[in-house]
Design goal:
Layout lengths: L1 H4 L7 E5 L5 E5 L4 H10 L7 E4 L5 H12 L3 E5 L2 E5 L6 E2 L1 H4 L9 H8 L1 E5 L12 H9 L3 E5 L2 E5 L7 E3 L1 E2 L2 E2 L1 H12 L4 E5 L5 H13 L2 E3 L5 E5 L8 E3 L4 H13 L3 E5 L7 H9 L2 E6 L2 E6 L7 E3 L11 H8 L5 E5 L10 H6 L3 E5 L2 E5 L8 E3 L3 H13 L3 E5 L2 H6 L3 H7 L3 E5 L2
Helix pairs in contact: 2-3, 2-8, 5-7, 6-7, 7-8, 9-11, 9-13, 11-13
């Protein structure tokens, strides 16, 4: 963990020999986007919390380091993280927070617990503007004074009081903003109503964890959340939901390589938009005993996809879907409505032989069916996964560099792909 503490990421690359259909079963890990705010929520209580099914990811380790820097004690054993924040400091330092966007979700718990919080502006993948204005708006609606000072968010209040807030933004509801608002409101005096709350499964998972701690939250899973503040929250045990983005990535990799992949533990109810688009493209999806199996039908068809807030098609699957679209005949169109800079993988895919043109917020993908191996560079987490999929489809050898992005969001990705028959190996730099 020392490398992450010093801000040094291993610069490994992934070497892929393409043209091998993927076959077999893969166990889906716990959701990255759920576990990070859940870990932050442990700051709301002095009592120990046990989080099960936590994925073994760089981001999880970073979040534990952030919690420790704030005064908590953490331990990781297998897929279980235990946290106790008996004493908490109110300062989240730049050196750790800058590494991932999810670290911003310590703002709400610190403000609720200590009535003050100083949190560095966060980092994360470079996929477009992600302002903190809705986070600020949420804290101010609860009675806090919030300022941006020298790169830090500084929030203070004599006491948090329930209020009404509208968290709809330019691209829809804010996921992390909803998480921060829920956590802060859980210890505020009175009733808080959040309109245009995010409805993602990861937000629901956080709400369920808060409820197990003693929070009173109504309307979970809906755009309107009503939270009655309580004086204190207690420790709790919780099992993190499976990662729907990881599941979609392996499903797409399987059908893109003309294989058949079974996802163990994946939840179809969290993946409805992805399943619908895959079926529309000619993919067969079978459900049995909590598992999902994906394979090609008799023929593939071009599809049009627009990314939207849940329950729409997730932006985190856009790049992977684009890799698959290079294998579908005709012209497919992806329109990105969440982030304005999330086509950075297009240029690298073109190095593999993809034919993609950008027109405003849309990418027009011409199915070429044949890609050829090349040296490519990952720009963000999901772009990395898309380039790996494209490399598995391509003829010859592809080397994807800067795969530390993958280690942030996919547990044992190269090992899981090897289990499915992929010819991949990690090359240390």
């Amino acid at each position: 963990m020392n490398n992450f503490r010093l801000g040094v990421f291993p610069m490994d690359s992934l070497e892929i020999k393409g043209g091998v259909p993927l076959h077999g079963e893969v166990q889906i890990s716990g959701a990255k986007n759920a576990v990070l705010p859940i870990l932050a929520a442990t700051l709301l209580t002095r009592e120990p919390c046990v989080i099960r099914n936590a994925p073994n990811l760089a981001d999880v380790k970073t979040m534990c380091m952030i919690l420790e820097s704030l005064g908590a004690t953490t331990s990781i054993e297998g897929g279980t993280v235990t946290v106790q924040a008996a004493k908490v400091r109110d300062f989240a330092d730049y050196d750790l927070v800058r590494k991932m966007r999810g670290s911003l979700c310590v703002l709400g718990p610190l403000l609720a617990r200590l009535k003050k919080a100083t949190v560095s502006m966060p980092g994360g993948c470079v996929i477009g503007t992600r302002p903190v204005d809705l986070h600020r708006k949420a804290m101010e609606a609860l009675g806090a004074k919030v300022e941006i000072d020298k790169g830090y968010i500084v929030a203070k209040t004599r006491k948090l009081v329930g209020g009404e807030m509208f968290l709809g933004g330019r691209a829809g509801p804010t996921v992390l903003g909803t998480a921060n608002a829920m956590m802060a409101a859980s210890l505020a005096e009175g009733i808080t109503v959040i309109e245009q709350a995010a409805c993602e499964p990861e937000v629901v998972d956080l709400a369920n964890f808060l409820s197990s701690m003693g929070a009173q939250i109504h309307g979970i899973g809906s755009p309107t959340l009503t939270i009655t503040g309580v004086k204190e929250l207690g420790g709790a045990e919780h099992e993190v939901i499976p990662d729907r983005i990881e599941a979609a990535t392996y499903a797409i990799a399987g059908v893109a390589t003309k294989g058949e992949v079974t996802l163990k533990g994946a939840r179809a109810d969290h993946m409805k938009a992805v399943l619908e688009k895959l079926r529309e493209s000619g993919v067969k999806v079978e459900q049995s005993k909590g598992n999902l199996t994906f394979k090609r039908g008799r023929g593939l068809h071009s599809v049009h996809v627009t990314t939207l807030p849940h329950p729409g098609f997730p932006t985190d699957v856009q790049a992977q879907m684009m890799a698959f679209m290079t294998q579908t005949p005709g012209i497919s169109i992806i329109t990105e409505r969440i982030f304005e800079s999330r086509f950075t993988h297009v240029q690298e895919m073109e190095r593999l032989g993809a034919e993609i043109s950008i027109e405003g917020p849309s990418a027009i993908v011409h199915g070429v069916q044949k890609l050829s191996g090349a040296e490519v560079m990952a720009s963000d987490l999901r772009a990395s996964a898309a380039l790996v999929i494209a490399g598995m489809v391509a003829k010859g050898t592809t080397r994807v560099s800067r795969i530390y992005h993958l280690d942030r969001g996919y547990e044992n990705l190269d090992a899981k792909f090897k289990k499915l028959g992929a010819k991949v190996r990690r090359v240390a730099q």
